[in-house]
């Protein structure tokens, strides 16, 4: 059945999937006649917009190709009135008409409308990889590099993963840049692999500065931490991206500390629990958490989660970040009995 529900926070991959669907079902010569995009607002206007889209998708296409009706955010604030409309429309869709529903938020699994779509539609999730799952991010980098035919060394791939994090849009942009560099710098030998130094030179890494920020906070160096916050914001680094890196680092430290305190000695077991891709990193992580307690790391992580919520609610990034960094530095400055 030609019904699709795309959802998730990875808007880049979602938009690429939408483009692929456009190319698959629409004839370019008849695009303006057979593509309808409706941005659905919440409330009664939203209900009317969805009903308009359902009526439109029942119309046969003009000329060649198929018809595609695209509704954005149709399930956000959807009312019960829409359920019978979908129940009546979906079974009778013409084979040449396609209905696409997209949204960034997860559909409410308790809703009868969502349950209907799960049965009747092709549901695809485009979730962002959590920033602390570095092994998965590295695999994503490797897959993207393979798809774009960018010959990266292992070290270059790891550096690129550290630089872009879970930002898929930036990943593909940086890989396109590296591919152009590879082709222009070595036209006679395109099989040459791109190494660490090239990635360090061409790909700016504010993630590394965010990791330095995490280190200074852990060491209770308030002045240095505030300087790094100012530097990152002056480089237009998004506040939520800074927070994502800090959460990833403090979460890793907390897991390592908990495993060490529990008496675990096997670095591979600790690496698995902390979701660290390279077990050799555990030695250095164990050294880093020697001077902080589980309680300090828990409190710091709690501060970061509160900060993330505040930023998503529209708080000013600079003042909110500064306040939280000062609070976390003071937490880590305390010198209780280490545990």
TrEMBL record:
Encoding gene (name): holA
Organism field: Acaryochloris marina (strain MBIC 11017)
Domain DNA polymerase III delta N-terminal as annotated: residue spans: 4-125
Entry protein name: DNA polymerase III subunit delta
GO MF term set: DNA binding; DNA-directed DNA polymerase activity
Keywords: DNA replication, DNA-directed DNA polymerase, Nucleotidyltransferase, Transferase
Enzyme superclass (EC): transferase
Superkingdom to which the source organism belongs: Bacteria
Catalytic activity as recorded in UniProt: DNA(n) + a 2'-deoxyribonucleoside 5'-triphosphate = DNA(n+1) + diphosphate
Coiled coil regions, renumbered to chain: none
Domain DNA polymerase III delta subunit-like C-terminal: residue ranges: 208-323
Gene3D superfamilies linked: 1.10.8.60, 1.20.272.10, P-loop containing nucleotide triphosphate hydrolases
EC number: 2.7.7.7
GO annotations of cellular component type: DNA polymerase III complex
Family to which the UniProt record says this protein belongs: Belongs to the DNA polymerase HolA subunit family.
Any single GO BP term: DNA-templated DNA replication
Lineage: Bacteria, Bacillati, Cyanobacteriota, Cyanophyceae, Acaryochloridales
A Pfam family reported for this protein in Swiss-Prot or TrEMBL: DNA_pol3_delta
């Amino acid at each position: 059945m030609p019904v699709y529900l795309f959802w998730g926070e990875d808007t880049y991959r979602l938009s690429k999937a939408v483009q692929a669907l456009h190319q698959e079902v629409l004839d370019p010569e008849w695009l303006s006649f057979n593509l309808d995009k409706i941005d659905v607002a919440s409330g009664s206007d939203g209900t009317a917009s969805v009903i308009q889209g359902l009526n439109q998708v029942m119309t046969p296409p003009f000329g060649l190709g198929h018809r595609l009706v695209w509704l954005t955010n149709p399930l956000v604030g959807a009312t019960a009135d829409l359920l019978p409309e979908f129940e009546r429309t979906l079974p009778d869709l013409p084979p040449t008409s396609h209905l696409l529903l997209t949204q960034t938020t997860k559909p409410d699994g308790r809703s009868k409308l969502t349950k209907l779509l799960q049965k009747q539609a092709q549901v695809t999730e485009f979730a962002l990889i959590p920033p602390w799952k570095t092994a998965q991010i590295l695999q994503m980098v490797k897959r993207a590099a393979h798809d774009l035919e960018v010959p990266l060394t292992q070290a270059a791939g790891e550096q690129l993963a550290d630089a872009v994090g879970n930002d898929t849009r930036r990943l593909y942009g940086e890989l396109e840049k590296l591919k152009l560099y590879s082709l222009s710098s070595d036209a006679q030998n395109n099989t040459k692999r791109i190494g660490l130094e090239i990635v360090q030179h061409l790909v700016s890494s504010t993630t590394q500065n965010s990791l330095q920020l995490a280190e200074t906070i852990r060491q209770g160096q308030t002045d240095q931490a505030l300087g790094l916050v100012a530097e990152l914001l002056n480089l237009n680094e998004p506040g939520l991206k800074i927070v994502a890196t800090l959460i990833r680092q403090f979460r890793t430290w907390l897991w390592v500390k908990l495993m060490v305190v529990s008496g675990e000695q096997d670095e591979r077991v600790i690496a698995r629990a902390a979701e660290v891709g390279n077990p050799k990193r555990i030695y250095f992580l164990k050294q880093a958490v020697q001077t902080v307690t589980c309680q300090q790391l828990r409190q710091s992580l709690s501060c970061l989660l509160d900060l993330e919520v505040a930023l998503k609610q529209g708080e000013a990034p600079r003042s909110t970040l500064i306040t939280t960094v000062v609070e976390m530095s003071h937490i880590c400055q305390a010198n209780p009995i280490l545990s």
